[in-house]
Amino acid sequence: MSDDARRKRWEAATVWPGILASVAFLIAYSWTVLDPSMSEGLYRLLIGLLALIWVAFLVDYIVRLRLAADKGDFVRHNVVDLLSVLIPVARPFRLIVDLFRLPSLRGNSGSHLRRRVLVIAGTFVLMFIYVISLAVYQVERYAPGSNIHSFGDSLWWACVTMATVGYGDYYPVTLTGRLLAVVLMIGGIAIVGTASATIVSYLSEQTQQARERRREHEHEHHRADADGDDPGPDRTSR
Fold this sequence. Notes:
Blueprint: H1 3-34, H2 40-67, H3 71-77, H4 79-86, H5 94-100, H6 110-140, H7 151-162, H8 175-229
């Protein structure tokens, strides 16, 4: 069996554990940020869980990299997996990568593509806003001169920034918060572009299908007219 075949078997076997690990990481990370009054024992337990999930992501990436036939191509096409190992805030986005591996989201037809884009894009938007809001709240809540003092403030700021409205009532003041704001702005532009392309593709496909149905209907109508004009064989003469 080739290395790529073994890698695909590994990926198929680890898709659901990967999804569960991503969800567990998101819950544990959210808990540590949103509940500053938790006990020391619970905090250490959650930090241990986060470290264990990171080790699992690291092992998964190393195994898949070793099994890849073209390692350079593997690295180029699995950027999120690499970021999930290097950057803590990127680890919840492994969930999106694992969703791509689900059989129900595979396929190359137009319907499969739209379903994949809608599910992945919808999950990405929710995850993107939530994770960025969480990270900004974590770095801004105790910063001098900050005006983001609750997760609700951070979530409102993220939604306004993503929608390119920019009221200016809340804004990050730390370097990390501003870097996350830039990531959020770039992500918002990418999401709008993807949504627009998906809508245009859907309308184009629907228009093409309507034209094909109309042509088929006209063809059947012409055949019916031709059959009606044909007198058939002369049965009176022998």
